[in-house]
Amino acid sequence: MNNEDILQRIQALVQEEHDLRDQPQGAAADAESQDHTARLKRVEEDLDQCWDLLRQRRAKADAGENPADADARPISQVEGYRQ
C-alpha cells in the first residue's frame, strides 16, 4: 500500500463517517442503533490507524528509510496514544 492508496482509504472512511453521523438515530431500533454505533466506532479506529500508518511512512521517507517498511500498528496501540 502506498501513500496514495492510504489517502484514498482515508477519504472513503471520512465520507462513511460523515454519512453515519448524518443519519438520524432517534427512530432506529435498539439493535440498529447498536450496530450504527459499533460501525461508527470501527470507522473512527480505522481512520486513526490509517493516519498513523501514513505518518510512519512519511517519517521513514524523511529519515531516508524505506516507507514500505512501515506496518499498520494494532488499533489497541493507535487508540492508546496521547494527544
UniProtKB/TrEMBL annotation:
Q: Which Pfam families match?
A: DUF2630 (PF10944)
InterPro entries found in the cross-reference section: Uncharacterised_Rv0898c (IPR020311)
- Which superkingdom, per the lineage? Bacteria
Species, as recorded: Arthrobacter echini
Name listed for the protein in its UniProt record: DUF2630 family protein
Q: Where is this region: Disordered?
A: 18-37, 59-83
